[in-house]
Design the sequence.
């Protein structure tokens, strides 16, 4: 069965997830996290991808990013993946694959869902019971987006900037969004859209993407088709 073609409209944000093969660890030491962060920054710049939010877990990675050129996210992830595997195999005297096949991704509607993806990504360590406060986890963008720490990796999205014109009030308002956990239905919708390469957004957004690309952006309804009785 041929692989499903990726849909990557220029200027449309995407949620990207890359998992370790068989859920194996892909980050073991602080040096590993630093190496991956540095190469992500380099390749995002090289292939013209804006990175808005991220979290690096021990066995997978989440990114929220926007491509500025055609196919730029795929180019970035391929170059980053190859570079990091070479480093990881050399460092830990191993051979073979590290990643679980191709990365997964979904398109994100900016107006209604982008900030929810920020929260979904940066709350990952909390959902995994690694920390109680996202500020405690050093390998995410929360300290940048919520606390004002600077990072050359981060490009704020316009939707994030529109939270408030004043930076301090923006940070305060952003932190307030994390007082409550995400709705379980939204979490499931994000996971399903990402794993199936679809879109997270309202029906109008999904219809527009379908018309633009010809690809289905909505999951098929389960069950047998209804048949009218004779």
Sequence:
């Amino acid at each position: 069965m041929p692989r499903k073609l990726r849909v990557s409209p220029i200027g449309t944000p995407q949620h990207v997830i890359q998992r370790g093969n068989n859920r194996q660890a892909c980050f073991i030491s602080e040096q590993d996290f630093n190496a991956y962060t540095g190469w992500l920054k380099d390749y995002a710049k090289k292939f013209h991808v804006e990175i808005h939010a991220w979290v690096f877990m021990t066995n997978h990675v989440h990114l929220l990013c926007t491509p500025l050129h055609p196919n730029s996210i795929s180019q970035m992830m391929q170059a980053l993946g190859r570079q990091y595997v070479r480093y990881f195999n050399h460092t830990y005297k191993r051979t073979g694959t590290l990643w679980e096949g191709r990365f997964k991704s979904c398109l994100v509607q900016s107006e209604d869902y982008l900030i929810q993806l920020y929260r979904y990504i940066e709350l990952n360590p909390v959902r995994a019971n690694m920390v109680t406060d996202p500020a405690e986890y050093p390998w995410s963008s929360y300290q940048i987006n919520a606390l004002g720490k600077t990072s050359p990796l981060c490009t704020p999205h316009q939707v994030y900037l529109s939270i408030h014109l004043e930076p301090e009030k923006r940070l305060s308002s952003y932190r307030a969004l994390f007082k409550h956990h995400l709705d379980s239905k939204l979490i499931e919708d994000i996971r399903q859209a990402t794993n199936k390469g679809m879109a997270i957004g309202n029906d109008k957004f999904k219809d527009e993407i379908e018309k633009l690309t010809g690809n289905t952006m909505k999951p098929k309804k389960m069950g047998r088709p209804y048949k009218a009785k004779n």
